[in-house]
Amino acid sequence: MNHILIVEDEEHLANGLKLNLEAEGFVVEVEENGQVALNRLTAASSEFDVVLLDVMLPGLDGFEVVRHLREARQFVPVMLLTARAHTDDILRGFEAGADDYLPKPFDLSILLARLSGLLRRRMWLRESGDADGEDEFDEFHFADKRIDFCRQVLYWDGGEQPLTLMEATLLRYLVRHAGSTVSRKALLEKVWGVREDTDTRTVDNFVARLRRYIEAEAARPRHLLTVRGVGYRFVAELDTQG
């Protein structure tokens, strides 16, 4: 059974979520304090599969919790639950290292669908093969780099960069479609599982972050290219002529 940590300081909301998720078969624990939750999540014994993290927490807010988690190299999937649904706040959450967000108030059915999406992506990265029956890979090599999708780590000579679930999922999707232009709309649907009208800056923000990891010069990308007005194209092998 999947183990979920809810970090929410509104007791009635936390208890309601806990009861509903337990009825769906999840093992659920609740913390109301960001610092306490951070301590639990960074402990060596932490075995949570997903964190549902409120943004507006007393003391250490949700943005800070997820940022400290990633700095501590703890990459459990995090979904932000936030009444601050402005695009800038959403992008701030993604920049901190969150994997998904859900604006309050929300329907339980929507939460369950987004939660299932996070768990499915996590499983997708850890098992070969997927629902489409396409051949998959656990590792990918290009230039002087190696991506280990199971471990969610990008390696290069003398260094490594852990990846969040969303970063690894996005990068794997682009690698799977190497050489082809992938639209922002397709990325939102296939990677985030979002079909409603969502600001495409979410995609651009993640791509900018991936470029800092994989490009020699992020401002002059050679592997992760922008196709103006459409989306992005991943190129593994560089043209060394000219």
- The strand order across the widest sheet is 2-1-3-4-5
> Which structural class should the secondary elements be placed in?
alpha/beta
Strand residue content: 15-25%
Task: Report, as a whole number of angstroms, the end-to-end distance.
Answer: 56 Å
Q: Could you tell me the radius of gyration in angstroms?
A: 18 Å
CATH topology of the largest domain: Rossmann fold
Main sheet record:
5 strands, parallel
In the CATH scheme, the class of the largest domain would be: Alpha Beta
Q: Write down the overall mean pLDDT.
A: 84
- Helix content range of the residues, please? 25-40%
Number of domains: 2
Number of helices: 8
CATH superfamily of the largest domain: Response regulator
Provide structural commentary:
The chain is α/β, with parallel strands linked by helices and 242 residues long. The chain has two domains: 3-126, Response regulator (Rossmann fold); 139-234, Winged helix-like DNA-binding domain superfamily/Winged helix DNA-binding domain (Arc Repressor Mutant, subunit A), CATH 1.10.10. 39% of the residues lie in helices and 21% in strands. Helix 3 (62-71) links the parallel strand 3 and strand 4 (78-82). Helix 4 runs parallel beside helix 8 (201-214). Residues 128-135 have low confidence and may be disordered.
